[in-house]
Amino acid sequence: MLGVLGDLVEDVVVWVDGPLRHGTDSAARVFRRRGGSAANVACFAAGQVPARFIGCVGDDPVGDGVVAELTGHGVDVRVERRGRTGSVVVLIDRDGERTMLPDRGAATLLDRVPDAWLAGLTHLHVPAYSFDGEPVGRSAVDALARVRRAGGTTSVDASSTGMLEQFGRERFLGLLAELAPTFVFANRSESAYLGLLADGTPGPERARLAATTVVTKAGADATTVDVPGEPPFAVPVPPVADVRDLTGAGDAFAAGFLAGFLDAGDLHLAAGLGHRSAARVLASPGASFG
To answer: Is the pTM here over 0.85, yes or no?
Structure first.
């Protein structure tokens, strides 16, 4: 079973029809969706492998709705209920690129994870958003360590350069070195910021993650998989005809990749499944399959 720990929130997705006009109206279409990077991964993976979500949502009607929606996709949802369910405003421009305004609310309130919530997991995935805030940060680190001690594999998604800058580059690299996850997922800008790009002689940052495979996505360009002790290899991305909204594409990739890894252990195959999964979300609003 794949476990995913992190945020479950409401996304307010805004497709902007043109440039934002300061101080007046701008034409747009607005969609409300269940969101949260961790919840997205669990949702997208559930059709491929058994998936469990672990987190905290508010004890409110919005929390009821997002829990029911995620459960309806076949995810085993384990959540604490307190506080106020978070919301994220996601502005999508005409090129499909996102600008996010997050208010994570109760997602930061996850306390120590019960043993029963980790029982049976063969892999635990945690987006880096979960390290930002307490007590969820301590809970995420503790859960990853417990799954490793039990013989499972783990992964961390770098999440966003904005989050990494706020958290601190050296602090994040030190945390990764401590956690030694099986995989780190990042896009090209995140890998560059962390010094993990596989485009030359490995630097000191890469040496600190000597046991970790770094998977770097590059949009329509090939994904690079950098396995410790082996030459990095690239997996081309098949063309996608209709790209309107990039929200959730990275989460869908992680879901497909991890499902492939858990099923077959072949990283070339896993990256290809990740691309196929990501392509399915690019034409629909928010993190949803079209």
So the answer is: yes
